[in-house]
Write a structure and sequence with these properties.
The chain starts with 10 loop residues before the first helix and ends in a 9-residue tail after the last helix. The chain is an all-alpha fold. The longest helix is centred in the C-terminal third of the chain and has 27 residues. Helix 4 crosses helix 12, helix 15 packs across helix 16 and helix 19 crosses helix 20. It is elongated, with a radius of gyration of 30 Å. The chain has a two-stranded antiparallel sheet. The protein is about 50% helix and about 0% strand.
Amino acid sequence: MINASLSSVPLYMLSFYELPKEVQKRLDFFRARFLWQDDQGVKKYHLVNWPTVCLPKDQGGLGVLDLRKMNMALLGKWLWRLETEQGIWQDVLRAKYLSQKTLVQRKSKPGDSQFWKGVMGVKDAFYQFCEKKVGDGKNTLFWEDSWIGGRPLADQFPLLYNISLNKMVLVAKVLSEGLDNFRFRRTLTDKKLEEWISLNFLCKNVRLSNVKDTLSWKLNKSGVFSVKSFYRALMIQGSGFPFKKIWKFKIPPRVKVFLWLVLKNSILTKENLLKRGWKGKDSNYQFCSGQETIEHLFLNCPVARFLWRVVGSVFNLKIANNIHHLFGGWLCGFNKGDKGLIVVGVAALIWALWKARNAACFKKKLYDPVELIHSMCSWIESWYILQISEDVRGNLQMGAALLRRVAGDLYNASHGWNP
């Protein structure tokens, strides 16, 4: 909803101008309030910081659009079109801003239009993902363009680049005059000489032609630029989110987001409330007498242990060691066919516990553990329609019915139960 409404409103302007920081802060303020506070007008905790929320789902976020990065990706398209297309507006911009320089050589300066300043602001990030295909070499910088070896020669041979007298020399000039005519500020010795030998070896087989240089986009197999691939590259951080498969679970979206918050240790358990400076009374939390952490609430408290033992005895399952193990190694131990059933059951169990905990805290209503099993089964039965396979649907219904029957037989009111 955020991406479809609030995030999409400024996109047209973001494709032409650099987004001012104060405008971005204001837009993010309203988007964050929309996410965490709904329309109730009541101040609520923002459970996860906004930069994390804006990360792609496989990077540990919710996939909400990062306006700054999207602004960069949209402006990058103008650089691509200037490099690869011919037309009236391209000719006007080249005549006004480039003269005899390449885009890489051009720097922003006072007096430039707001549009051009925005385009120049993303130039360095844009060219990280470009590679020049050398033809005549007249539009490719020898040192600073990525045209051989997968990255700029300035990065591959930094010692030579630092002492080069002409850092903006073109490939055409270097190769036509020969590498032996290169001039440096000092004599090449030791490591500099080693770099020089490697540079000569790398460039010895390069031949110029009469074809113009072309630009290739390294992020797409086709070599053609796309805003999507540029935005994705700008957003990638580290190794990603180890539990990204939760987004493929066949359960309601709000439950997926809840599981994401659980794995981020961000739901408002008593422990997390205290970290946020909460000063309420302990008497408001009557669900369990133990210290309310995520691990305790969903795995170790008496009610949770009861539910897990019943489920384990009915389906011959072992209890996971912790929450991360539950959605990691424990879940990976099942075959593909069973995993689809298990994840629905686990999500229903955790969701039922959370609902019961909130009822105890806010409505002073304590559920009998058997009621929680029936609640869990009800969630499973209501989610079965989300499953694609008819076999999975049937197995979920049979599993829920079996769980109801066993729980009723073994733990009915006449037997009693004490945590």
